Amino acid sequence: MARLADYFVLVGYELDKRGSRDGQGQILQRFPEKDWEDNPFPQGIELFCQPSGWQLFTERNPPTFFVAVLTDISSERHYCACFTFWEAVASAQSHSRSGEGEEEESSSHVQPAQLFAPKSLVLVSRLDHTEVFRNSLGLIYTIYVDGLSASLENVIGNLLTCTIPITGGAQRTISLGAGDRQVIQTPINDSLPVSSCSVALLFRQLGITNVLCLFCAALTEHKILFLSSSYQRLTDACRALLALMFPLKYSFTYVPILPAQLLEVLSTPTPFIIGVSSIFHSETQELLDVIIADLDGGTVTIPECIHISLLPEPLLHQTREALSMILDPELEVADLAFPPSTVSASSLKMQDKEIRAVFLRLFAQLLQGYRWCLHIIRIHPEPVIRFHKAAFLGQRGLVEDDFLTKVLEGMAFAGFVTERGAPYRAIDLFDELVAYEVKRMRAEEGSKQKILRHIKELAEQLYKNENPYPAVTMHKVQKPTEGCYLRLHQRPFPRLDEGTVQWIIDQATAKLQTAPPAVKAEKKCMVPSGPPIAAIMERNGSALANSARRLEVVRNCISYVFENKMLEAKKLLPAVLRAMKGRAARHCLTQELNLHVQQNRAVLDHQQFDFIVRMMNCCLQDCTAMDEHGIAAALLPLVTAFCRKLSPGITQFAYSCVQEHVVWTNIQFWEAMFYCDVQNHIRALYLESNGENHVDEEDKEGPQEEKSALEIASEQRRLWPTMSREKQQELIQKEESTVFSQAIHYANRMSYLLLPLDTSKNRLLRSSGLGDVESVSNSFVTNSIAGSVAESYDTESGFEDAESSDVANYVVRFINRFVDKVCTESGVTNEHLKGLHIMIPDIVQMHIETLDAVHRESKRLPPIQKPKLLHPSLLVGEECVMEGLRVYLLPDEREEAAGGNIGGPPLLPAEGAIFLTTYRIIFKGTPMDPLVGEQVVIRSFPIASLTKEKKISTAVQADQFIQEGLQLRSCTFQLLRIAFDEEVASESAEVFRKHLHKLRYPQHVSGTFAFTVGQSPKQAMQPKAKEKNPSLRTLSKNLVKNAKRTIGRQYVTRKRYTPPTWEQRSSQHFQEDDEDEISDKMTMSHLVERACCRDYQRMGLGTLSNSLTRSKNEPFRISTVNRMYAICRSYPGLLIVPQSIQDNTIQRISRCYRQNRFPVVCWRNSRTKAVLLRSGGLHGKGVVGLFKSQNTSTAGPSQTDSTSLEQEKYLQAVINSMPHYADTSGRNTLSGFTSAHMSSAGKWGSIRASGRMSNYVLNMEIGSRLAGKDLLSAQHNGAPSEASFLRQHRASLYIIGDKSQLKGVKPDPLQHWEVVPIEVFDVRQVKASFKKLIKACVPGSPSTDPSLAYLRTLEESEWLSQIHKILQISVLVVELLDTGSSVLVSLEDGWDITTQVVSLVQLLSDPYYRTMEGFRLLVEKEWLSFGHRFSHRGAQTLAGQSSGFAPVFLQFLDCVHQIHLQFPMEFEFTQYYLKFLSYHYVSNRFRTFLLDSDYERIELGLLYEEKGERKSQQVYKSIWDYIDRLNKKTPIFFNYMYAPEDGEVLRPYSNISNLKVWDYYTQEVLSEGPSYDWELVQGQPEQVEEVDRQDSSAPQTKRKIIWPCYDNRSRVEPDAISKLLEELHNLEAELGQVPECWKDTWDKVKASQRTEARQEASRMASSSLLMSSSLLPHRRSLGVYLQESGVGSTLNLSLDSDTSSTSTPSSGKQGGRKSTSNLYSQFQMSESENRSYEGTLYKKGAFMKPWKPRWFVLDKTKHQLRYYDNRNDTECKGVIDLAEVESITPGTPTMGAPKTVEEKAFFDLKTTKRVYNFCAQDVQLAQQWIDRIQSCLSDA
Questions:
Q1: Which of 535, 924, 970, 1766 has its CA 20 to 30 Å from the CA of residue 598?
Q2: Which helix (H) or strand (E) holds 1656?
Q3: Given the DSSP bridges, would you call strands 1774-1777 and 1760-1764 parallel, antiparallel or unpaired?
Q4: Residue 1273 pLDDT exceeds 50
C-alpha cells in the first residue's frame, strides 16, 4: 500500500518582496509539517506553482490545474499537482512591478487598479493519478469557494492519510468526507507505464514522422525541448514520450514543466527532455544542440549540427506503415471507388494503446535475442550481469547500424540490462513478446491485416493493464458553481488549523502500525530466453552456396599445412586469404585450427608456423576493434597454443606475430572476453556440483540439452533463500575465487598480446598509433601497438614522464585499469585486488624476459625459406662460370607469360637464379604465383648472342622495395629482365656483368665456346698464343709460309680485316713463284673436297684436269689461281672462270672490283645454260672503264684501259659460253632463242608483246622498279609486270649493280650486256632494322604509348620491307636466268646482299638446294666459302664489339622461311631446321659459322681437321655433323609434306602483304628454354609425369593444359606422323627388335602407299579425290584426310603426288566418306550431258617428262577439261579448271614431241598456275579444240 498524497502545500504570493523586480512565491502552510521518514519534502515547490513567474494580475483568472514533475537526488519522481486560483491583494496602493504591470504605469495615476495575486493548492505524491488529484484539489476549492459545510481540515487530513495499493489491478473507493466518492484503479503491472490518452495526443499534435524523430532522438540521447502554451500538454507530451520508450527507462534530466527561473538548465551538456512554456520561445532560439518540438504548431526543429540516427530499415518503414494504419485508417481506402461506409479510428484511449503496441513490437524486434548475449558473472550474493554488445550487433548483422549501436551504448539500455537481465524475476508483457512472439512477427512481416490484428491484441492487453475494471462506479465529486471565481467579495483562503490535520494524520499512522504488513505476493519465475539469434536471422541462400566452396578451400589449405604439403598449401593460400574477407571463412578457420590444437598438433615447423600466422593475421585484419563476430575471441586461445621451437628450451608462440591488430588494444574486447570466460567457469562450477547428485537421473532421461548459464543462475537464485548461511558463504567464496583466477589468467594473456617481440625499443613510435584501423599492416615485423595505446591512457591519468615511457609500464598500466574495472564490477574483495596489482608488474617482467630470448633466437632464424635453386642441365663440355645468383625474372611486355590476354595464371614474375656458363646465360626458377608454383620456368640464350645489356631498377611486386636489375637482350629473340634478390650483393652483380662481358667478347675467335668447349673456363678467359694451336699441323708448311708472305702482314695479330685500298692494290705485284705451285697433294685434295667443288662437279661446270687434257668444248674451267688465297682472300681456293681466260688476266681483272672479288660463276641453269655470277661492286675507275666504247683512240693504252679491256673480254667470254649466243653470231634477237627456251613452263608464260622496244627502256624499267618507282602497275605477286618485262630484246648478260655506283653511266647499244641499277639497303640499315624488330617482337618494358603497339613498331622496323626487297631482286634474277640470260650480281662488297640474292636465286631455281644436303651445300658454298663475314657481322670478338650485330644470314633464312610458307611441299626440311640454323649461327656452339672466310679458317686450322681426329663423340664441331646425327635419330628436321615437282622453279610472292612475321621471333618455351640444344630438351616430360603420379588420390587424366608460351607445342602435341613413328619405334624396342631408322620406315610407307594408290585407282570407281592436280602445283599443301567409316578411322596420308595423277588414299571401307568433288559427280549420272566434246590429245608432262596421249573431255557443265589414261578409263587423271585458263595460243614442238605431227597442230593452254603443252593428231583437230575451248571461255 502507498500513500495517495505525501504533502499538502498552500503556496501564495510573497507580498513583502513586491518591491523587487520579479515576484516570488512562498509556502504559506504545509501538512504534515514534519517530513515523512521515507520521503523528505521536495524543495522549490513554489517555483513550479507559477512556472512562468509569480505575477500580480489586474483581473481574476479562472482556476488552473497542472501536474509538474520534480526529481529528487535519488532520482525518485515527485508529482506536484498544482491548483491555482487568484485572490485580491489587500493593499491596492502598492504597485506591482511585475512584467504585466509596467505598461499600465502611466495610467495608474488615474485610478489604482485592483490587483489579484495567485495562490496555489499543491499535492505532492509519488503516484501519478492526475484525475484523482484534480478532483481532490477541486473539492477543497469548492468547499472554500462555495462555503460548503465540510471542514477543510478534515478533508485534507483524509486526503493525506488515504492509502491505496500500488499495483495488482486493485480497485479502491475513497471518500474525503465531504460527501464525495472516487474510485482509484491501480494498473495490473506497474512495470508498464500508464499513458491514458497522452501518446495519441502527442501524435495528433506532431504527426508520425516528427514523433518517430523525437523517439529516436530520445533513445540516442539527444536534448529534447517541448514548447506549448499549456502546462498540462507539456506534461502529457513528456509522459507520452517516456511511455513510448518502454521497456527502456529514461534516466537523464526529465522536467516536463521548467520554471522561468531555471531556464539556464537548458544549456546543460547532458541529454534531457524538458517542457517550457512558449512564452520563452525567444530564449530557446540560441540553443544550438537542442531539438525543439512545438506542440502548438506541430513542428519539430532539428539544428544543423545534429544528426539523428533513425531506426534501421526495414523497421523504420514497417513502423511508419503500422502507425498510419492506426492513426489514419481512411488512408488505406482513400482511393477506392466504393469506400466502405464506416472506417473509423478507435477511441482516443484505445488508439493510444495501439500506438504503444506498435512501439512495443518495434522494441521486441530490435532487441530480439538479447538474452543470448548476456554474460552472468556472479550469481551470489546478487547476480552481476553484463551485455556483450559487439556479439549482439555482429550476430544481428547490424554492426554498421548507427541507431542500434548508440542505443546499446546508452544509459537507458544499461538500466535495462540491470533491471531485466536478472535471470529470476517477475515478467511482463515485453518479456513474453521478445521470448515467444518474435517468430510470429517475422512470419507476419508482409501481411498488413495480420500485423494489425497483432497490434490490436497487444493494445487490448495494455488497455486492460490500465483499466482492469471496465464497469467503473460513478465518481461523485462536488464542483464549484460556474463563474464563482469572478465573485467580487470572495474572502481569502482561510488559514487551516495545523493541529486538527496533524491529529488525523497521527491517528491514521498509529492504525497502520498496528495493522499487519501487507505482503505483496511477487510472482517470480525464470525469464524465458526466446529463440537464439541465429535461429531468427535468416541467411542468404546464394551466399551460403558460394561460401561452402570457400570453406572447403580453407579447410583443405589448413589440412595441407598440417600434412606438410606445402606446395599445395601455397597454391591455395591466395584463395584462402581472399576468402578471409567473409565471416564464415574466418569462423571456419578458427574452428579448424581449434580441432588441430585439440589433437595436440600445436607445435609446428617453421613453414607451417609461417602459414598459420599469415592466415591468422589475415583473419584479424578485417576484424574491427569491437570484434563483433568473435573472431579475435576464438583466436585468442589459439595464438597462445600454436608455437614453434626456435632452439632447445626456447619456443615462439603465434601471439608474438599477430600483435599488430587494433582489437588487442580495445579494453571493451578484453572485458567481453573476460566476462565470457568467467561465465563459462561459473556455469561449470554449478554444473559440477549438480552433476555429482544427478548422474543417475540423466541416464534415465537420455541426453539432456545443455543448460545455459542463465538457466543455471535462475535455478540458483530460486534456491538461494532456502540455503543455509554457510552454504551461501561457500558459494560466494567459490565464485569470487573463479573470477580472481580468471583475472590473473587475463593479465597474462594481455601481456602476451600487448608486449612487442622486441621490447628493447624503449621509445615506441608514437605515430604508429591507432590512427585508423586500415593502417594495420599484415607484416611479421611486429612493432606492437602497446606503446601508442598506453600513451593514450597516460595522458588520461594526467602525467607523462620520460622515465616511464617504456613499454612495460604502459602495459602494466593498461592491465591494471582492466583489472580494476572487471574486479570491482564482479565483486572481487579488496585484498584480492591489491594482490593482483602487485602481481601484474611481475607477470609483465617475466614475459619480457622470455620474449628477449625468443627475439634473439628468431633473429637467428634463416629468412623465410626461399625456393631451392634449381640447377640447369648443361651440355657436354659446358661449364658453369658463376654459380647461381638469386634473381627474379620479371615479365616483359609479351603478355602471354604474365597471364595477359590469353588468361591463365602468370608464369612471370618467377623467382630462381641466373647462371653463367661458358656457353649460355640461363635463368631457372619457379613462378611466384602459387597456382603454378610447381612449374619450372627456364629462359636462356647463348652468351654469344647477347646484343644489349643495361641496368634497370624495378620492384618485383607492387608492395616491395626497388631492386637492382639487368636487362639482357639476345639476337635469338630472348630477353632476360632480372632483378637481383636482396641477398645478392651488388659486388656479385658487378662480377657477373664483368664475366659476361669477357665471355661475350673474347680477345680472339679462339676464345669462343666452340673452341674452348671441354677446357676449364679459367683458361678460356686469357687469350691463347695462336701458334700453339695443334690443329695447324694439318696445313702444309709451305702453304702457311706462302700465305703469310703474300699477305705481307701477319694476319693473326690484326684486329680487323681492312681490305687494301685501290691504289695499294694496283701497285701490288703478285710474283708467281715456282714454289707457289701446289706441291702438297694433300692440300689440293682438301680443296677439292670443299663444298663448292662438289657442287661445281654436280652442275658439270668444269673438271680439275690439266690444261692440256682439258676438253676445249667445256666453256668453263675450275681455276686454282686463288689456291693460296693470294688474289682474293675472301674467295674459296677453287673458282670457276670462263675457259678462255688465263689466270694472269684474272689477277688484273680482280683489281677493278672491291675486295678483289672479281666475277665468278656460281651456278648454271641446266636447261637454258645461263649462268649466275657473283662479284663485289666495281671500283669507280673500273666502272668508267667498263662502259668506255671500244672505239676510243688507242694511243698507248694505260693500265686502267687495258684492265677494262680485259674485263670486257672476261664478260664477253661469259656471254660466249651460253649456247644460244654461240649459235647466233650477231645480236641476241628473237630468232636466237632456242625452242628449249621458248617452251619453258615459266610463270609468266607465252610471249605476247610484239612491239620492238629498245633494251634501254627495259633496263630503265627494271631498274626503276626495283628502286621502288613503279612506273607500270605491278602484278599481284610483286613481280615486274609482264608487258614490259618480256621483251623480245634480251641482253645476254645483265649486271645487277648498285644505283649509286652506276651514276652517269650511259648504256652502250653495241655491248652485249646491260647494267640494271638498283637501290639496295646497306648493312647499317639492316642493323638498325634488326634492333627495332627485336624491340617489337620482344618488348622490354610495358609501354602505355599506343604508338608503340606491336604492329606499328614492326612496320617501323622496316624488316619486312627489306625481306620484300631481297625476294623481289631474287625473283627478277630467277626470271632472267629462266629466260636464258646470264646475270652477274655485283652489289656492295659482294659478301652481304650479293650472297643473299645469289643463294636465294639458286634455291628458287634449283630443287636440289631445297633438299637437306643441297641446302647445306648452298650455305657452305655461298656463305662460308665465298666469305660472308660471320665473325664480323656477328660481333663475335672484342674487335667487332663496336661494329655491332648485323643479321645478314638471319635475313636470308627469313626469306627462305617466307618461301617455305608459300611452297610447303617443295622443301625437304622443316621450318624448325631454319630456326635451328638461325639460333646456332649466332650461338657459337659449333665452329661452322665462325671466322670470316675459308682463308681464316685454314689459318686457324679449322677447315681440314674435321676429317681427322675427333676428340670425343659428343663434341660436334660442325653444325652439319650434328644435324646429320640428329636427323638419323628423329624426324625433327624432315618435312613430311615434301613432294617436289621435277625442275620446279619457285616464284614466291614478295609483297609485304604476302609476308608473315617468322614465329621464330615471337615464340618461346618457358618450360625448357630454347629447344635448339637438343640434348638439353630430351627426357624432361617423363619426370613431370612421375611427379604427377605420386598423388594417386587425384583422378588420373591424360588431359593437359598447354600454355602457348610455356609448353613446347611440337612435343606436347606432336603431329600425327611423328607420333606414329615414335610409337612404332617404341613397339620395336619393346619387342626386342633393333629399331629401324625412322627414314627407312618412312620411305617404306611412302613406297607402299604409292603402289596401293595405283591398285586402288584401278579397282574403285570413285575414290576420295583428295588432291586434284588443279591445285596450284607449287602451292600444294599436304592432304591429311581422316576418313570416318563404320569400324574406326583410318588415317590416309597423301604423301606424294605427281602433276599428272592424283594420289588416292586407300579408303578403308566402301562406306568411306567421298570428297566433295566426287559427291558432285555422283549426282550427274548420265555422263553424256557432261561430255561437251572429247578426243585424244598429246600432252607434255611437267618439266623433263615425255609427251603422252591422253583422252580429253571438255565439260561445259562443270567448266573443266578432264583427262583420262584412255577412253574407257573411269578414273580421272587430272582436271584443268577453265576458270583458271588465261589464254590459248599456237605452240611449238619441243623435245620428245610426236614426230609425225605438223608444227601447226601444237597449241599451249596457259593457266594461272602453269602452261600446258598440247598437240592434236592434225591441224584441223587442233583448231577444233582451240575453238571449243575458246567458246567455253567466252561463254563463261
A1: 535
A2: helix 1638-1659
A3: antiparallel
A4: no
Lowest mean pLDDT among 227-236, 480-489, 1056-1065, 1807-1816: 1056-1065
> Is the backbone of residue 414 left (phi > 0), alpha (psi -120 to 50) or beta?
alpha
Integer angstrom CA distances of residue 1562 from 975, 1445, 1570: 11, 19, 12
Other residues' Cβ atoms within 10 Å of the Cβ of residue 1791:
11
Alpha helices for 1548-1590 (secondary structure H): 1559-1562, 1574-1577, 1581-1590
Residues 980, 951: Cα–Cα separation, whole Å = 11
In one-letter notation, the amino acid at residue 1833 is L
Q: What is the structure's pLDDT at 1480?
A: 92
Do 145 and 480 meet the contact criterion of CB atoms below 8 Å apart?
yes
* Spatial distance between the Cα atoms of 1378 and 1243, rounded to a whole number of angstroms: 10
Amino acid at the residue 197:
C
* H helical segments located in 1515-1615: 1519-1529, 1559-1562, 1574-1577, 1581-1590, 1609-1612
Which residues are paired to 476 by β-bridges? Answer: 181
Direct distance between the N- and C-terminal alpha carbons of the chain, in angstroms, rounded to an integer: 125
Strand order in the sheet with 946-955: 937-942, 920-927, 910-917, 880-889, 974-980, 962-970, 946-955
CA dihedral 686, 691, 693, 695 (to 10 degrees): 160
Three-state secondary structure call for residue 1700:
coil
Q: Is 1817 helix (H, G, I), strand (E, B) or coil?
A: coil
Distances in Å between the Cα of 847 and the Cα atoms of 85, 664, 808, 1414 are 78, 17, 10, 84
* pTM, rounded to two decimals: 0.57
Copy the grid coordinates of residue 717.
Answer: 537464485
Is-contact 941 963, C-beta < 8 A?
Answer: no
Measured CA angle at 1068 (ends 1067, 1072), to 5 deg: 135
Among 455-459, 1098-1102, 1211-1215, whose mean pLDDT is lowest?
Answer: 1098-1102
Q: Please choose, from the candidates 1534, 1528, 1545, the residue with its C-alpha nearest in 3D space to the C-alpha of residue 1412.
A: 1534
CA–CA distance, 618 with 636 (Å, rounded to integer): 15
**What CA–CA distance (Å, rounded) separates 801 from 791?**
11
Residue 551 C-alpha cell reads as 570453406
Inter-residue contact 1204 to 1149 (CB < 8 Å): no
- Fill in the DSSP letter of residue 1466: S
For the chain, how are helix, strand and coil distributed in percent, rounded to 5? 45, 15, 40
Confidence bin at 1272 (pLDDT 50/70/90): very low
Of 649, 656, 653, 640, nearest to 604 by C-alpha is: 653
> Phi, psi at residue 1431, to the nearest 5°?
-65, -40
Q: What are the b/e assignments for 705-724, b being 16+ CB within 10 Å?
A: eeebbbbbbbbbbeebeeee
Beta strands at 1313-1318 and 974-980: parallel, antiparallel or unpaired: unpaired
Q: From CA 300, how far away is CA 214, in angstroms rounded?
A: 8
Sheet containing 603-604, strands listed edge to edge, beginning at the edge strand earlier in sequence: 603-604, 643-647, 650-653
- Pairwise CA distance, residues 1631 & 1642, whole Å: 20
CA distance 904 to 349: 72
* The three three-digit cell numbers of residue 992, written as one number: 657477373
Q: Which helix (H) or strand (E) holds 1690?
A: strand 1689-1693
**Dihedral pair phi/psi, residue 1228, rounded to 5°:** -85, 85
**Grid cell for residue 1170:** 645461263
Per DSSP, which regions of 1221-1355 are E strands?
Answer: 1293-1298, 1313-1318
CA distance 1400 to 1397: 5
CB distance 713 to 423 below 8 Å: yes
Closest C-alpha among 443, 484, 387, 478 to residue 177: 478
Q: What angle do CA 1280, 1286, 1291 make, to 5 degrees?
A: 105
